[in-house]
Amino acid sequence: MALGKLTSATAHEITPRQSAPFRGGFISNLAALEKVLSRDALVDSVRGGTPVSFDATDEGDDHEVRLAMMTLAFGTRPARAKAALTLCTRLARTMDGRSQDCVLLSSVHETSTFASEVIIWMLPHEPLVEKGIGRVQLGDARGQTAGLRKAAAFKGMNTHTGFRKGVALDRQTSTGDQRAAEFWISRFLDGAL
Fold first, then answer.
1. E-assigned strand segments in 2-84
2. Rounded to two decimals, what is the model's pTM?
3. Which long-range contacts (CB under 8 A, 24 or more apart) does 101-104 make?
4. Please, what are the averages of pLDDT over each run of 10 residues along the chain (193 residues)?
5. By the number of CB atoms within 10 A of the CB, which of 63, 117, 134, 151 ranks highest?
């Protein structure tokens, strides 16, 4: 199934255990990025990921990753910038000494009048090209996505039930290293199979 129209994207450089500030911001070359992300092989690999879900806590609906994704999809520009940094902080905190520097890319795709899909992509590190305050461009998006390590896609409407179920792609799960497999789905996404 094809991706919907790309409406927004952010990219940030992440180093293990890094604390803010994170270099990056909103992607300025959306048309070029959309063309790369829409390649069938890339979409199929993400769509074929492991089904995962976010569970609401007893205290209410405060799942950090889910709320960040919903804000990326439906929030104001300042709120979306803050949500992207929340994901960056969470990823950097989750990474350990075995992790390599990376680029965390979030893309928001319109799926209908009222629904959106957010995909988080963990790509090999490549320096971002600054295009002004809070605006960046991926240098070689095609080359970076060829080295896709991990991704997660969730979609829905801006409701209590939206963004609860999705898929996660973790290319390290076949390595036999259980800690590597748990890193993306359990620790970063805080998701359940």
1. 5-14, 24-27, 50-53
2. 0.87
3. 101/13, 101/14, 101/15, 101/16, 101/125, 102/13, 102/14, 102/149, 103/11, 103/12, 103/13, 103/14, 103/24, 103/128, 103/138, 103/144, 104/11, 104/12, 104/14, 104/24
4. 88 84 88 83 84 68 89 96 95 82 91 90 77 69 68 91 89 53 81 81
5. 151
